[in-house]
Amino acid sequence: MNDRDRLRVSRRGLILASTTGLTAPRSLAPYPLAAAHQPVTAPWRIADGLRLAGPVSGLASLDPALSRDLATNFLLRQVFRGLVALDRDLSPQPEIAESVTVSEDGLVYDFVIRESARFHDGRPITPEDVRFSLSRALDPRTTGGASEALAGVTYLQDVQGAADQLAGRSDRLAGVAITGERSLSITLEGPSATFLMRLASVPASIVDADQVGRDDDWTVAPNGSGPFAVVGWDASESLELAAADTWWAGLPALPRIEVRLGSAASQPVNLFQGGEIDLVDDVPPELVELIEDPATGAPAAELMATGLFATSYIAFGNRQPPLDDPHVRRALQHVFPADLVAGASFNGQVDAANGLLPPGLLGSGWPISPISIDADAARSELRASRYGSAGSVPPIAIYAADIAAVEALRDVAGPELGLRVEAIQVGWTDFLTGLAERRFPAYALYWGADYPDPSSLIDTLFGERSPENFTGYVNPELESLLAEARTADAGERIEIYIRANQLLVDDAALIPLYHPIGYTLARAGLGGVGATPMGILGLETIAEAP
Q1: CB under 8 Å to 138, separation ≥6 — which residues?
Q2: pTM higher than 0.90, yes or no?
Q3: Would residue 397 be called left, alpha or beta, if left means φ above 0 and alpha means ψ between -120 and 50 degrees?
Q4: Pairing of strands 396-400, 421-425
Q5: CA–CA separation, 358 vs 310, rounded Å?
Q6: Given Cys at both, which of 46, 357, 398, 541 links 528, Cβ 3.0 to 4.6 Å?
Q7: Considering the chain, what percentage of its residues have pLDDT values greater than 70?
Q8: In whole angstroms, what is the distance from residue 176 CA to residue 179 CA?
């Protein structure tokens, strides 16, 4: 695979699943750097616009209600915005709304829309546009009847009436009420410490209700609500954006954005070194040492490193044999030296993971008692299992789109313990479908947080009521902690999630592999990039570096 084909995942939509080889650094042959005599040293100028490499899979839709992967979210965030947005510190701030007020009981959020808020054609954004947008984000008719294909469930399911909307019993989200010419309220089923974070998501963006209602092909040239307007789009080749003079904050300084899609976006580091793009927002960690080598020409650019709110892991369900036996799950934990992923496979350019939660969320380092790598302890666990020995344990099937980590577990668990691990590789589309349908008792995945809170990982991936709990894992003690966290204050929530993170490890719900570091490569002279632990959010901040 080339360096844009790594399947990274966020929620159900995803760009990549899992990890790479574990025993030695992966060969760099698929990722050749441009020759040393080709560096581009001319500084970037804002008048030239910004050239990017987008997803090699192309861009299937410009509808934010269908946006389920990190790469698509990034592009659509430039075209559409919602009532609130995350700032550089990942705190939710008013965006299309000029103000938000929360009731004392935490159930009602009152918004006032900015008088300057406009769609790209100049029409004012109204409360009805907001109600329409949030309603269709939970309406199965948006996806032809498939509610599991909706991107907004994770973000909007706490809004009053969401269940009726998802079940097709209503065509309007009951919890959204228009209260004035520029004002509306959103009522929740219960208090939520993360609602404003989730309201900043792409699926909660505001679309033009009039355009969607009259034009079945509205996504070909959407009348967006963000800082950049679509001027050209070929789903498999390119996306062209231009600064929107209707943007509420004023015309962005960056005049245009050109995004390569499909095969034209392949190997962006080489494209960067060849002077064909100006920014790489996802440099493969295994290339960092080579890029930093002066012989490659990278000194003409800035390489920025940011710890990401993401985790690569192997998940174990607890509903089907033999993984319903915690001793079998713990045996797999004890025998697998997962820290080799960080140390060997990525040349130390990622952080080894001891738990699900990446450091930095809520400002915490998430202390945890790690798994001991101890083959004798693994054999003791198998003897304590209902099977009594490895030979009696049925084969353990683990699924992934990128199968290397599972193969490494198989190659250790077999010789060391005599366990039979079946590493089953599934094509990306089928893998996503299988996850959504909970067909995999165990799987390997890379997961990026959808919003900057531990609930985006623990609640989403292992909570009983979550549609993204792909194995159907159930733990009453975990559910009690998650319920407690939903109404706790900030300090209490950290302590609760420290316990929840440890519980998942102790119950062997997963083998944590690594927390990635995001490496961003920017042309000399290109400023205002704004890389965050959730990646680059908005491009309206781009400017020439001083």
Answers
A1: 150, 152, 153, 156, 157, 159, 162, 165, 166, 173
A2: no
A3: beta
A4: parallel
A5: 6
A6: 541
A7: 91
A8: 10
